[in-house]
Amino acid sequence: QVQLVESGGGLVQAGGSLRLSCAASGRTLSTYSMGWFRQAPGKEREFVGAIRFGGGITSYADSVKGRFTISRDNAKNTVYLQMNSLKREDTAVYYCAASVGWLRVTPSGYASWGQGTQVTVSA
What we know:
- The protein is mainly β.
- It has no helices and eleven strands.
- Strands 2, 4, 5, 6, 9, 10 and 11 form a seven-stranded mixed sheet that branches. Strands 1-3-8-7 form a four-stranded antiparallel sheet, with no helix packed on it.
- The mean pLDDT is 95.
């Protein structure tokens, strides 16, 4: 099973940008499709976006489309979530997850998860 560690979260003003990283160990990420999810207090974990194992195909939730971009560097065994034009409603703990399938938009479709990184967007 692959182990995932997210980093890059923090406090940012609305309109700002952050880039989250998800580093993998234990197995190569190249054979996994990778998803990003987020969970705000009192809410369910929701799909943000995903990138297919080949790296050429991505999919995003409507709420982040045009603002967030997922990329991967298989040589570094790392996946990224570039977040631009951040809004207060983007405040949440962000998780990366690995799946052997495509396209999974629910948490149950992912077998491996990171511990999460907090993103807080202030006014």
